[in-house]
Specification:
Blueprint lengths: L1 H9 L4 H26 L15 H47 L2 H29 L4 H32 L7 H27 L2 H27 L12 H32 L14
Helix pairs in contact: 3-4, 3-5, 3-6, 4-5, 5-8, 6-7, 6-8, 7-8
Length: 290
């Protein structure tokens, strides 16, 4: 009977078609039985892979970890800004030397840009440091306070470098060779001192602070020699022994450079405080210059 039914159903179809349709019918019938068997079995709730919601303690721990990461980035950014400011101040003094030696107009413009950039960095640190220092421990707080002291002196160095070159830019007469040589020598020493400032803040080694303090007396000596030479020159009639106006700008420029050396000396003392954990300014101990 079954054979006759199959013959009636597929008698009008080609032999190959009958075979494939029969195979498809049997395959889907078997698949349907398997689905019915699986649906009739009781489901185990524990077998479902449902995500577990984190506990309150885990959420607080994750939040604190994220905050520490953000704080670390914030504090590292302030330190990176100070390192950048060290290089900018060094470049400003380097361009002072270049302008004095060659009269380069580009060097004068570079000094102006350095002064503006140091102002911007100081503003950023002033805005970000009060919030950052309230979230750190004692060691990191000392470093952030050092960042504030560093940028204060570095910004002032930028102002003094710009002031020194402005005094000489407004001068109509050429600089006397002896004065030019003295100012170039002062600028070279200051450039080396500021490079030591950068390395000292980066590595916290006392040797860099000693190098700064060793070079500072030489800057003072050059400045005082320049003053003595101009004060010893014969003054114009009726000037009552005062320095002639055409040389007064040279003395102002030399004084500005000498004050840059004083700020570099302050930074050497801050490097000592970072390395030793105590300030050198309020103690009788001084660094060995040798």
């Amino acid at each position: 009977m079954l054979a006759r039914c199959r013959t009636r159903v597929y008698s009008n179809l080609p032999p190959k078609t009958c075979f494939y349709d029969l195979f498809t019918f049997l395959f889907y019938s078997e698949a349907r039985k398997n689905l019915e068997t699986m649906s009739s079995k009781p489901r185990n709730p524990a077998s479902r892979a449902t995500p577990r919601s984190p506990s309150l303690k885990e959420r607080v721990s994750r939040s604190r970890h994220s905050e520490r990461q953000v704080e670390g980035l914030h504090e590292d950014e302030l330190t990176a800004l100070v390192l950048r400011a060290c290089l900018i101040a060094r470049d400003a003094v380097f361009n002072v030397r270049d302008s004095l030696a060659s009269g380069s107009r580009l060097a004068f413009l570079a000094i102006k840009d350095c002064e503006k950039e140091l102002d911007q960095i100081e503003r950023r640190i002033d805005e970000q440091l009060p919030e950052a220092i309230t979230r750190v421990g004692e060691t990191k707080a000392r470093e952030l306070l050092a960042c504030l002291k560093f940028i204060t002196d570095l910004e002032r160095i930028g102002d003094l470098a710009y002031s020194a070159i402005m005094q000489l830019q407004s001068r109509r007469e050429k600089l006397p060779p002896a004065d030019r040589r003295a100012l170039v020598d002062m600028s070279s020493l200051l450039c080396e001192m500021l490079e030591q400032v950068h390395q000292g803040f980066l590595t916290r080694r006392l040797s860099h602070a000693r190098n700064i303090l060793r070079l500072d007396p030489e800057v003072d000596r050059l400045c005082h020699a320049l003053f003595q030479r101009h004060l010893a020159e014969p003054s114009a009639p009726g000037s009552n022994g005062a320095v002639s106006p055409q040389n007064f700008d040279i003395l102002l420029a030399a004084q500005a450079l000498e004050r840059i050396g004083d700020h570099a000396k302050n930074l050497a003392e801050e490097i000592y405080a970072l390395a030793e954990g105590r300030s050198l300014r309020h103690s009788a101990k001084s660094l060995n210059y040798s």
